[in-house]
Amino acid sequence: MRTVDLIAKKRDGQALGEEEIRFLVLGYTRGDIPDSQMAALLMAIVWRGMDEAELLALTDALVSSGSRLDLGELGLVAVDKHSTGGVGDKTTLVLLAALAAIGVPVAKMSGRGLGFTGGTLDKLESFAGFRVDLSKEEFIANLRRRGIVIAAQTADLAPADGKIYALRDATATVDSIPLIASSVMSKKLAAGAQIIMLDVKTGRGAFMRDRAQAEALANTMMRIGQRASRRMMAVISDMSQPLGAAVGNALEVKEAIQTLHGEGPADLVELCLVLGSHLAAAAGVGKDPAAARWQLAASLKNGTALSKLAELVAGQGGDERDVYDPSRLPSAPAVRIVAADREGILTGIDAKAIGVVAGRLGGGRSKKGDAIDHSVGLVIKARVGDQISPGSPLLEVHARSSEDIQAVESQMRAAFELGHDRVQAPPLLHKILGM
Ligand code: URA
User: Fold this and answer.
1) Domain end residue (candidates: 272, 302, 327)
2) Number of domains observed in the structure of the chain
3) Residue 398 host element (H or E)
4) How confident is the model at residue 389 (pLDDT cuts 50, 70, 90)?
5) 0.70 exceeded by the pTM?
6) For FRET with 21, which of 48, 113, 284, 312 sits at 20 to 30 Å CA-CA?
7) Is the beta carbon of 84 within 6 A of some atom in ligand 1?
8) Catalytic residue annotation
């Protein structure tokens, strides 16, 4: 088999066979196939798509590039949740700590920032020393000991997804249902949780801008999970404006900690409680979602979820004092409020533009392997529907220098759309599937 022939086959719209997909994925993971050829193949997939058999073969090849944990065989039942990528989406940090606090074991494999969206691994690495590259044995040991583990794709677990994910980030090959579905589900199947919640984002700050596409992605991932005998649930949630106020790694961690003190933004808290209540009830904690919701809400008020985050951080190489005193987390030297220069009603906040700016400030990567700055980002000070006057704060920028702030100032202002007519804030949840 020659890689170049398989790229041409996909480019010309033909389906690849199972063996061909395995050859490409495993060859790239071993280093036999260079980035240039994998990038060309990914772009061909973005344009041509994949049929069901190709999708299943791709997911399987990504999983079998490493070990597949069977938590059931180890006598463990765990839950997992995955977002398809959003702006300001720090749900995992809050939700998983709250679930673990009420006794629901959580085993999660996460990703890094992708395109204009943030990634849980990058957020967690705002804690100095936090290790995401766990071996299979460490993953299981952490799950047993603390009831919570969050790890990256490693040499042991879904290594092919780790490598391809980083390449997609740098080659504009993210927005594709088969690539997203296989990437997400390979991590879920490798990490072994039996109950999986998908948070499929839709709107301007999501890869699936359109609701029908988001639903197609959700259904595709649910099918992959159900074939592997997983209990699958999904929500289609809104990402037309950022979730919560903070966008940027350490800033989002700080907002997650504030939420674990019971003082979180309403949209973030509600999303965590909806996702968490269904996951917990499916895992047998709480007699139904309403009872589980009550327990989760209590964990956000009584400090137990906060202690779980501290345990997670300490257990994976960080310092739990950072959780109890977030001023120890990275902070940017230049902080400035950007205010409105005219009057109007805030009719929209372009979440994608906000994500792009956070990346430009240093919070994202423009090429594979770039280092990121955990301290930079934005804190949004206005919500859709607010009456804005000249001088009203729109957002607070955290940057490496005032020159960096100046460079993005007009782009940031343009992300806040002002009109004359009253608008309804978009609903947080568009649809719930499989619950
Ligand atoms: N999350 C993932 O894990 N993979 C994607 O491709 C997109 C979001």
Assistant:
1) 327
2) 3
3) strand 393-399
4) very high
5) yes
6) 113
7) yes
8) 82, 161, 168, 183, 187
217-247 tens-digit pLDDT:
999 999 999 999 999 999 999 998 999 999 9
Domain residue limits at 126: 71-327
**Residue nearest (by alpha carbon) to ligand 1 atom 6:** 180
pLDDT per residue as tens digits for the range 314-325:
999 999 999 999
Evaluate whether 285 touches 298 at the Cβ level (below 8 Å): no
Q: Is the CA virtual torsion 103, 104, 110, 113 positive or negative?
A: negative
- Measured CA to CA, the distance from residue 62 to residue 27 in angstroms comes to 11
Rounded Cα–Cα distance for residues 20 and 28 (Å): 12
For residues 294 and 362, membership in a common domain is answered with no
Which atom belonging to ligand 1 lies closest to the Cα atom of 117? 8
Closest-lying ligand 1 atom to the alpha carbon of residue 174: 6
pLDDT digit string, tens, across residues 252-289: 999 999 999 999 999 999 999 999 999 999 999 988 99
What is the average per-residue pLDDT within 103-116?
Answer: 93
Q: Is residue 111 within 6 Å of ligand 1 at its C-beta?
A: yes
CA of 84 relative to ligand 1 center, distance in Å: 5
- Ligand 1 centroid, distance to 104 Cα (angstroms): 24
Q: Is the CB of 118 under 6 A from ligand 1?
A: no
For residue 50, report the phi and psi dihedrals to the nearest 5 degrees: -140, 150
